[in-house]
Amino acid sequence: MLLRDLIEGLDTVNIKGSVDINIDDINYDSRKLKKNSLFICIKGFSLNGHEFIHNAIQKGSTAFLVEEDIYIQGYTFIRVEDTRKAMAKISSNFYDNPTKKLNLIGVTGTNGKTTITHLIKEVLEYNNKKTGLIGTIKNVIGDEEIVSSRTTPESVELQGYFREMLDKNINDCAIEVSSHSLELKRVDDCEFKFGIFTNLTEDHLDFHTDLDEYRRAKEKLFHKTTLGNIINLDDDGGKKIYESIKNLKTPIMTYAIEEEADIMAKDIKIYSSGIEYKLITPKYQMNIKTPIPGRFSVYNSLAVIALCYLMDIPKETIAESLENTNGVSGRFESVETDRGFSVIIDYAHTPDALENVLKTAKEFVKGNIITVFGCGGDRDKTKRPLMGKISQDNSNYTVITSDNPRTEIPEDIVKDILKGIDKLDYKVILDRKEAIQHAIDKAEDGDVVIIAGKGHEDYQILGKEKIHFDDKEVVKEILGKE
Q1: Residue 183 Cα to chain centre, angstroms
Q2: Fold of 98-323
């Protein structure tokens, strides 16, 4: 592609060098560059891409997208105010603007994104629609599964995935849209057909200054949609977003349990094996069943149903798909045991998510709830005491352990958690494997052991090192030895 065509629509400060040169590749990582490539210089949180220009030249780069006033004879330098924003436009151009042809469905909110995107994929495929997936656990393009390194990829990878989907005749894609991706412009120049808002609870306040800024970041998604916005009206953040976007041209569909909404659940029954409720829509009513327990599962299914309603998916298809879903790895996932107690693994790593998981367990537990959890290091510290109190108030016994301490001292993380605990029904065991072993040893008939925080993750980050650690593997190993 000619560089001239690649930068079409870009707001530039100045251009030095020829734009009539061929560009075969684009990248922001100097280690992955190829010959005749455009190197995009990003100023990150710890590294400045401008410092790697000479490395990029050695790799074969011939053109550079920069924010700083830099020029080297014989190469082309395109200067812009914001290389992240420009990268999104260039990435879309390079891959021939794939989202203009894709039915792109974005899901944002603190909790529920992964489950909802997986359910969307299942329902659409049940309706014979080939569907791609971009999310926290994995990215799925046809038969190919790519392990995710972040919830929403950078724009270069993202647009590349979308192009692959179209090349494989995939016309629908469900994508988790994180607040980081919206703030860091990863999804700029993506044309979303539908947007879904799940909820807003305390999280990522190490990145956002407060909850209002966090909500405003999420809200950006709903200004990028063309066919429909779907909002949870039972959530305070959802109400505020609804008020902010209600005058946009894009139609809004609301869902709720408590508030009056377009899509509602009534007569809800929650069992250890799943949920059942009466669905009410503007055109029809029917019974819904799904084998994922918990009130949060009602909300997740309502969000999916609202989307399907807007897409004119037959109601029978919706009901059958939800009833036959396999659920999502690490989301309220039960580990089989021949003992008299249950073990459930969940990704809950925010106060609201932990409370939802524990309250769900309360609805069917016959004995005690034993909770194992920790909090991540180098992340929002304000949620730590909140999670300590939630575990204390909703568990009979808590085992506080390490999650991903990263570069923080694990003992310091625990001290923050303990600020929310004023009873003595807990134990601190920093080694996560030993903590899980202790919880299982303590469990008796009728008890439920909840292991929260990591879910699908198969690693721990200690310092700057990532080591293999899988909660489910550990549980199976412990149970197999006993």
Answers
A1: 15
A2: UDP-N-acetylmuramoyl-L-alanine:D-glutamate ligase (3.40.1190)
Cβ pair 20, 2 in contact under 8 A: yes
Nearest Cα to 1, choosing from 72, 86, 91, 109? 91
3-state secondary structure of 450: strand
The CATH number that domain 3-94 falls under is 3.40.1390.10
**Cα torsion 355, 358, 364, 367: sign:** negative
276-279: long-range contacts, CB 8 A cutoff, minimum separation 24? 279/305
Q: Are 27 and 156 in contact (CB under 8 A)?
A: yes
Q: Count H helices and E strands in the chain, helices first.
A: 15, 24
Nearest to 438 by CA among 370, 385, 386, 387: 370
User: What does the pLDDT read at residue 19?
Assistant: 97
Can you list the positions of beta strands (E) in 257-328?
263-271, 274-280, 285-290
23: nearest Cα among 65, 77, 61: 61
- Those residues of the chain that have pLDDT short of 70 are 202-209, 481-482
- Which residue ranges make up each domain of the chain? 3-94, 98-323, 333-481
- Residue 336: per-residue pLDDT: 82
In sequence order, what are the residues at sequence separation of 6 or more whose Cβ sits closer than 8 angstroms to the Cβ of residue 424?
none
Q: What's the rounded Cα separation, in Å, for the pair 259 and 275?
A: 20
Among 397, 396, 399, 407, which Cα is nearest to 374's? 399
Count CB atoms within 10 A of the CB of residue 444: 11
333-481 has which fold?
A: Protein-Tyrosine Phosphatase; Chain A (3.90.190)
Q: What tokens appear for 453 in the block?
A: 């925080």
Q: Which residues of 355-371 are buried (b: 16+ CB within 10 A; e: fewer)?
A: bbbbbbbeeebeebbbb
The identity of residue 143, as a single letter, is: D
**CA proximity to 106, closest of 171, 184, 190, 200:** 190
Three-state SS letters, 215-261: HHHHHHHHHCEEEEEEEECCCHHHHHHHHHHCCCCCCEEEEECCCCC
Give the pTM.
Answer: 0.85
Residue 202: what pLDDT? 60
Q: Position 273: which residue type?
A: S
Which is nearest to 371 in space by CA: 382, 360, 380, 381? 360
Nearest to 475 by CA among 280, 298, 342, 335: 335
Specify whether the CB–CB gap between 121 and 140 falls below 8 A: yes
| Whether 200 contacts 215, CB under 8 Å | yes
